[in-house]
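The instructor's notes for this session suggest beginning with a concrete chain rather than abstract definitions. Hand out the sequence below and ask the class to guess, before any prediction is shown, which regions might be ordered.
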Amino acid sequence: MRTNYEKPKTKNHILDMTQIKKLNRNLETEQEKFVFTILLYTGLRASELIHMTRKWIDYKRHFIIIPDEQICNCYKCKSNRKYLSKKHADDLNEHQKLIMKGYWVPKTISSARTIPIVPEARAVLYPFFKEHKTVMEIFPLTQYLNYTLTKIQKRCKIKLFPHCLRGTFATMLARKGFNQFEITDVMGWADINVAVFYIKLSGIVLKEAFEKKWSRDLE
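After discussion, reveal the predicted structure:
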């Protein structure tokens, strides 16, 4: 049994395009394709993905709209309520009070957001919701997402977990020229400095600086 498990650091497992292409070629089931594609091209957290319902989708404008709150009685939400019930009511914050009332809520206030659905995600997301009303019908727990990614990881020998796909999406946005404010909004971060970190990690600012300045004639 592993007793010294350390959560992998997202920054050490950002995927490059060669890895993404290899992973895409080796997806064997519709479930694998769904989990990998949606996490990679939306930046959703694992908890957000399993709580997604058909109602989150704006098909006309191609948006995912994550609500402030959503009634939920899944195993994880019940477990959270059981844990919080041990605390005194006065010690609960507003977020926790909503959970106690039977709601699922996003991680932070900033996490309730609108995410544009890029074509890569539409191709998988829309057919899924023609067949299902909720993601939880297929993936009732985040562990199911992790298990699906682990199978792909073993097949491709590339480290995969939900947050590395979220981090890869943030890096992709930076490389496409989105600024820190835009990235912060899409990713649902409370701190803009997280977006600045991913912009630096992408190397795009340094690359543009070199392209602009290196060609200057020396005086």
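Then share the key points. The chain has one domain: 10-68+106-212. The CA atoms of residues 50 and 135 lie 5 Å apart.
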